[in-house]
Amino acid sequence: MSDLVPYVSRLFIYPIKSLDRVEVETATILKSGALKRDREFAIFDRSGKFVNGKRNHKVHAIRSQFDLKTNIVALRLQETEQISKFHIEQERDALEHWLNKYFGFPVNIKQNLETGFPDDVVSPGATIISTATLEAIASWYPKLEVEEVRLRFRSNIEISGVPAFWEDRLFSTAEETVNFQIGNVHFMGVNPCQRCVVITRDSQTGEAYPHFQKTFITKRQETLPDWTERSQFNHFYRLAINTRLSSTEEGKTISLGNQIRVHKV
Predict the structure, then answer these.
(1) Do 257 and 5 touch, CB atoms closer than 8 A?
(2) Above 60 in pLDDT, residue 1?
(3) CATH class of the domain comprising 7-35+119-262
(4) What angle do the packed helices 131-140 and 146-153 form, to 10 degrees?
């Protein structure tokens, strides 16, 4: 294990929460510890709740392309070719109207430049997973390719140069964090991310994979490495690492190829 050189092999941000990703070469850290532009926008219903895959399976069929330079988002529905483009700030009303018509109820798009809209507001830093882990999970399901697994788990930082579940080294007990660096950015690894119903569904159609959760829980428990802190698993429906960062990391960047160094206690 000492000869391993973990490094960032892929970087993803999700400008509109629950919609499609943008793959980038560099990402900037906000004061909150979140990645700049990640989950910067979110769709809400009139009661103030997220319109996301957890609550509405129709989200899965929306294909989106977000241009980070122009703030123009292109939307189409799965299995269709018609594309509608909107400037997310200047044409917000038109964008919301498109979404209203699709979902069948009124929605609003909100923006948060400070933290985005993370699922875990206590640990809003980037989520981390390894390529080898995605490959291992794909092997559990005969009908899934690695790319589909990647799309389901929606992590920000993917690392290579390590075996499956190596990222479990980046958390400890509930009372402690693991300090590590990606390039010159200091992270605190907090816990394994609790998963929801979204990962059981096809990322493009929302169709449920039979017995996905049961298989996942069984295989995750069977393959849990010796280095994993088992006390963090009140159940085994957990994968990828939640992180926090100090405000001192604001403005720093992480890039493809950056190495990961775990600080020894």
Answers:
(1) no
(2) no
(3) mainly beta
(4) 110
